[in-house]
Amino acid sequence: MILDEDRFFDPDPAIRRIARELYDAVKGLPLVSPHGHVDPAIFADNRPFRDPVELIIIPDHYVFRMLYSQGMSLESLGIRTRDGSPVETDHRKIWQIFGDHYYLFAGTPTGVWLNHELSEVFGVREKLCGENAGDIYDRIQQKLKTPDYLPRAMFEQFNIEVLTTTDAAADTLENHKRIRESGWPGNIIPCFRPDSVVDMSHPEWKSNIDELSGASGIEIDTYKSYIAALEQRREFFKSMGAVSTDQGVAVPYTHELTRSEAESIFERALRGKATADDAASFTAHMLMEMARMSIDDGLVVQIHPGSFRNHNRIVFEKFGRDMGADIPVRTEYTRNLHELMNKYGNDRRLTLIVFTLDESTYSRELAPLAGHYPALRLGPPWWFHDSIEGMSRFRLAVTETASIYNTVGFNDDTRAFPSIPARHDLSRRVDSNFLAGLVARHIIDMNDARTMSRALAYDLARESYKLA
Amino acid sequence: MILDEDRFFDPDPAIRRIARELYDAVKGLPLVSPHGHVDPAIFADNRPFRDPVELIIIPDHYVFRMLYSQGMSLESLGIRTRDGSPVETDHRKIWQIFGDHYYLFAGTPTGVWLNHELSEVFGVREKLCGENAGDIYDRIQQKLKTPDYLPRAMFEQFNIEVLTTTDAAADTLENHKRIRESGWPGNIIPCFRPDSVVDMSHPEWKSNIDELSGASGIEIDTYKSYIAALEQRREFFKSMGAVSTDQGVAVPYTHELTRSEAESIFERALRGKATADDAASFTAHMLMEMARMSIDDGLVVQIHPGSFRNHNRIVFEKFGRDMGADIPVRTEYTRNLHELMNKYGNDRRLTLIVFTLDESTYSRELAPLAGHYPALRLGPPWWFHDSIEGMSRFRLAVTETASIYNTVGFNDDTRAFPSIPARHDLSRRVDSNFLAGLVARHIIDMNDARTMSRALAYDLARESYKLA
Amino acid sequence: MILDEDRFFDPDPAIRRIARELYDAVKGLPLVSPHGHVDPAIFADNRPFRDPVELIIIPDHYVFRMLYSQGMSLESLGIRTRDGSPVETDHRKIWQIFGDHYYLFAGTPTGVWLNHELSEVFGVREKLCGENAGDIYDRIQQKLKTPDYLPRAMFEQFNIEVLTTTDAAADTLENHKRIRESGWPGNIIPCFRPDSVVDMSHPEWKSNIDELSGASGIEIDTYKSYIAALEQRREFFKSMGAVSTDQGVAVPYTHELTRSEAESIFERALRGKATADDAASFTAHMLMEMARMSIDDGLVVQIHPGSFRNHNRIVFEKFGRDMGADIPVRTEYTRNLHELMNKYGNDRRLTLIVFTLDESTYSRELAPLAGHYPALRLGPPWWFHDSIEGMSRFRLAVTETASIYNTVGFNDDTRAFPSIPARHDLSRRVDSNFLAGLVARHIIDMNDARTMSRALAYDLARESYKLA
């Protein structure tokens, strides 16, 4: 398993030659990671990663959901239970299961990322399988003990220009502080994610509000003080380098409540009396509010809608969230974003980036919206669509109506730190290949393609997220 | 019209070479047909097929709906009316219409299957057209009189390892018995399809229940006896070789009723008082029940949702069902399957295969569900999507998230017996070409591809349907 | 920027060779334009176009919406305000903005059309950019003053066989009359579009009805007289050459009201008391009525559903309709067209052409419907999907189920007159390439392909719209 130099490029010689040329010009650019879920503690601590399973399997639901779907229990893969009931602790044994079933990842982005990671990060040049699993485990394990494989060393080695984490509204950003105070120059910035204090249907909403009170130093007993606390936290996040916010919502419905409606609902919620309708209205209202605040403070707004979280109750109760059981649902944007777009979509001070898990909206709703409203930009293919075919479909569906310039480059959006170079490399290859297809069909010329290739690999992410 | 050896393969030389190599290794494997609609009587009787029209046009709504859409009446094509009012009986004349309009099938899977069937089954090497229609009719007619073209001889010639029929819950499986008792070794097995006794909105539901009583020997006067009768029939089907059940539903909504709710609804239905809501609830409940029974008896569950049956009332009233007027509707899986997945989706004893006519669900809902729940597998592209482009889109949309190993290989799903080899051949070619595209782009290697190719052509169907 | 001879063809040599051969045989065929929005006044007047901005930018929301999405104001692009408040009048300055941002159109159909138009219509062989914008403005400006660039001369030069405009029900077709009376043989015909007198929710519905009274000479004070007036206008449009009608609806819901229901709703509407439900019911009813009338008078019915018009209220209030802010919504056909298809879909005297902005309906609903009902045909990819990728996806999604023969060839559907040759050329190239892909994969043979290529480029449009 030597990685082929032309991987992911169309085999047609004309396309391949152009793709390679475009890719060669961008492959060395620094990695801009404006949205993701890597834990900042690993850079604050800068301790060695424990072992290959702790690094590659346990934190990555992309990996273990596939094994689970084929009959392996999560316990046998070492996934920790909420109640501490025992799971497999022999990590060599878990790695062996992984090796035995590595063939399941053939043709998946996870497989492609893992191949890259094993080969380019850990120098493992043979394909993982049952026979060599133990040996490969040992070789990776040994490397993890060396200074070159400490988190900060890897960050530098990966050529990451900026890495954004995702942080709750009440987060004290202790780890970000420790990183800054350490004098290490790695640029790791937070992103303000208020979901847990916006979504009133969340069972722990009230205690999250209490945490927000604590973090902001503002006693939250009214809607007004709630808004003040959020504004205070945004200011604090900005002071810690944040350039963006993010909201995950079931439905991207936007609607502004009157002041008194918002106050009543908020008070009902404080008394534990908010209904499901209240929660939905309040979320719709807070999408409006976050856009309003962003016009004031300049933070870029991100919206990630349309995931049915924790679809599998048994898995959720035993193991918690982010266990590979979040399933997309059909999502509507044209009507849902109507009020938001009408109030703020014409305002060029705002940058609002929407994502989707519903590919049928690419050409029908999202590209036409982004191809009109000055404030709107389209986030890259998200989650299940962050893949060779998924990215190709996105570009083919979106570019003709929105152009690449109403999109924002790539997000790796990962909690699997060592997969970051693999993900950016794949994205740069797929975009180069897409552009090569346009050049080979004489839709654009090579000059256009070079500019667009750099935009997709680097410039658009920096500019859209105000990182330039 | 000599069939090209490289048909359906990408013209790119790199892809084509690999596709051909993969295809060559699987083209000779026996045909596994785990879901279809061929009438078992033809093998029980083993009488000569009457003529080309009776064999190729009249039973195949794929063929006559296209002619109908272009202005030919169904009467002129010999389709029998329900009331016996006269239709064209001169089959040479019907075949002439077919020949005159054969160009309509250019670029359709029906056209491709027909070309294969005419060439490989009947030795007709020229393309059918108005000029040669009469001559070709005669040549096929002559062959049909010879022993090589008796149904059982064709079955053997086709190299069919197993052929599954679809049979009503009250079916006595008389034809299956006759086949077994004849000593002929052709492996033809039933599939248990209880739609007509589940769907209370069906005008003949009550008389279907009576038939079920008769067939099971259990008097059905309560919900309890109804369930007992179904369990009895499943046992009987199993004894006749069945490995699976199938349900066709408008919406794949699943919801378990309480015992007393189920009893009340069932009693209302027996009294002819069930409402449309009752019928929908009961269907949702019976999807749960069928999964429960399958965990007990091991039958594989199939669900075929999302067809608006008999959309054309005039055609339905005159000619009946399966006349090419079933039109797909948008279908939702994430929420509809939620209860079923939560109750049984984690149970590895269950295999539940879902199909769709709504391609927008491939990447959005079905692949993420199948890439997580151990019990769930995705059926192959169904009906309108059982085609070169349809299969290619399915693999491209589904594989990255679900892998091929959460899919179940190919179903020919046909009532057109002589088209079976053409359909499997097309499927094997398209899957080989899909895999070749992955190899040529260095996404998988040739070893992976060989294993996957065999899995798609043979192993997955055998294993998923417990036929191995 | 010399336009490449092989543009838009797949780079694979086998496909490209076949595509070129197919294209060469159809590229010279006259242009049939059975649906569009060019203003007939330009041919009645036959005055020189004022300048490049007036010709290319101001009438074309495809062009200015992209510039708007990237932060240019519509005022700065010279788009006229409803209240006459001032906008940029220096057209050289506007053209400079256009040149500076021409890179935004790379990879879009607008970019491709503009390249063709500049090169083939105006002889501008270099790519437009900031540096050469002023010079190119002058060169085009000069040409526009010459007789060869008068509207009628361009029409002839473009080899347009027939050009259909879109005209309100009350339109007197004065310009069409003037064209006819001028003796100029250019074939420009109207299309009957009654939206403004059908949609009761339109704020000016009542005054539109008054205009209809005036135009028809029938006093509209009852539903009966309303229908009579519409029938009168259709007759008049037919006498002026019309072969078709068109309706734009939010939802393609069809449902026939009883006579008395229709009368009551209509009377309520005349009194200004119609509700939103009334308006929706009446539109559903009028889709049925228009089909009924078409069976009588032979006009082809077109339905364009699924656009959320004037999504951006600020832009609408300031600039009016057709400003690039119409955004598609999810659209359902199987259930919505049920009543219409059941009443008229089996009637071969009717031709009913449906369009969609929701690509997820291509394979799920539209192709199965068109592949069954004799009256139904599918319109070409519309609006955002009138593009290289959009057309390719349409053919790939639709052909296998509906065949090309249940589609109607190409519509340019444009108000940008000088872009017409570019649009037809693109369509002919993309269809040739699609067919070449089928030939190269041995799905169809070269004889089929030649016939199909001509059908898509010319015959189907002529026959479907009864222009032959």
Explained architecture:
Three copies of one chain form a homotrimer. Chain A has 20 helices and eleven strands. With 468 residues, chain A is an alpha/beta fold. In chain A, helix 19 (420-440) packs antiparallel against helix 20 (446-464). The two termini of chain A are 38 Å apart. Chains in contact: A-B, A-C, B-C. The interface between A and B is large, with 49 and 45 residues.
In short:
Three copies of one chain form a homotrimer. Chain A is built from 20 helices and eleven strands.
List keywords for this structure.
homotrimer; 468 residues; alpha/beta; four-stranded parallel beta sheet
Measure the end-to-end span of chain A: 38 Å
Give the largest interface. Answer: A-B, 49 and 45 residues
Strand order of the largest sheet of chain A: 6-7-10-11
Major β-sheet of chain A, in short?
4 strands, parallel
Provide the gyration radius of chain A in Å. 22 Å
Number of strands of chain A: 11
Oligomer: homotrimer
Which stretches of chain A are low in confidence, meaning pLDDT under 50 for 5 or more residues running? Answer: none
Q: Secondary-structure map with pairings?
A:
The structure is a homotrimer of 468-residue chains.
Chain A: H1 13-26, E1 31-33, H2 41-45, H3 52-57, H4 61-69, H5 91-100, H6 109-121, H7 133-144, H8 151-157, E2 160-164, E3 167-168, H9 174-181, E4 188-189, E5 192-193, H10 195-198, H11 205-216, H12 223-239, E6 244-249, H13 259-270, H14 276-297, E7 300-305, E8 307-308, H15 313-319, E9 327-328, H16 338-344, E10 352-354, H17 361-370, E11 376-378, H18 388-402, H19 420-440, H20 446-464
Parallel strand pairs in A: 1-2, 2-4, 3-5, 6-7, 7-10, 10-11
Antiparallel strand pairs in A: 8-9
Helix pairs in contact in A: 1-19, 1-20, 6-19, 11-12, 13-14, 14-16, 17-18, 18-19, 19-20
